[in-house]
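Q: Sequence in, structure out?
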Amino acid sequence: MYSKDMIKFLSEAKLVERYIIKGGTPLKGEVSIGGAKNSVLKLMAAALLAKGESKIYNVPELTDVEIMLSVIEQLGTKTKYDRKEKSITIDATNITSVTATYELVSKMRASFIVLGALVSRCKEARVALPGGCAIGERRVDFHIKGLEALGAKIKIENGYVYAKTNKLVGSDVYLDIPSVGATENIMLASVLAEGSTRIQNAAQEPEIVDLANFLNTMGADISGAGTSELVINGVKQEQLHPIEYTTIPDRIEAGTYMTAIIATKGKGIIKNIYPAHLTFFTNKLLKMGANIKLLDPTSMEVSCKNRLNSINFVTQPYPGFPTDLQSMAMTLLSTANGVGIITESLYENRFMQVPELNRMGADIHQDRNHAIIKGVKKLSGTTLTASDLRAGASLVVAALMAEGTSVVEKLHHIDRGYENFEYKLRLLGGKIERCRDDSPAGSLTEGVHNESYI
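A: Exactly. Output:
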């Protein structure tokens, strides 16, 4: 006999959501980009540093945001998530707990960032190790070494990182690799440290700049954000104050819609973007033969009429080609003229979309961290499984450009990072529906090669 909890789990597990996508329609129209997922999650952690009520605007409605809310609420903050206004209010007047539990941290790796904020404000923290990741190993030893350099005593026990200190003191920290998470954690810990901290070989992503701007607005003293060397001059707790702040646009979401429009040989306008954050990606698309025109400081027009030409891609830390758009590049190369090579230099297991694309008729050969893509004339619709956030989104784009109808399963991965994905694609004319096993699949299922729909 199953328990009530097990019955509930089994019933919910059966109600799997999926996309039904009919490909072959050029996307046309306008789409507006939301706030950056990889920034807003860190701003929420940073709000823990100042006593009082801070408000963050341009917050996307994502499952990752919901998880981060649960993490910081567990620490004793009071929060309000206004979906209509797209804002989050965080009252961090009182921090009643310094423990971020495994049940929450395991759901989203980015929540590990509360470690630096807690050590900075409370002088102690107990944060669960985030565990493995589908796209590859993302170690936390750089985070820990940085905090130790500031004077924190670290102990790892029973799956938790325990950090404690009587006083954090500024120090020089050199990162072996420009880790975004480590840069952010060390930056947060340094804000209230005594003296100056210098982070060398720091990450330079726009999200790092956004976090530094947020903290400086709050009263911190940070310079060098966006370069390889960050300097944080410690301030007193009473110098920090709650603020209102607007998150930058999501450059990865923007790149995804650019890819979808170009892949389907459509024409569309991408609004609410910072074009400078997309320079490397834009240059690559132009080399492939896409048309891109800047309309004003926050919007651009993208289009494509002819078959793209294959080029090579190598993922690198910002300002290089972003690993989060690697799967999008692969989707474009799958039907481009010639042979292209993608080298994934950051994560060892980020080609999980390869078998799915090959099932659609792509010709992709993987050799360790290299993918050799020989362009085919067309992809064919089939049933696909999203393995992670970015691979899942790239399969949706592939389905939109394919001949026939596709099913994309395991949407919970995609929901982590794309707000109203199917709605925005439908605004561009994409033929996409979200359905559950317990609801009618709609009119797009005709021709799907899957026993569930025959």
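The longest strand covers residues 17-22.
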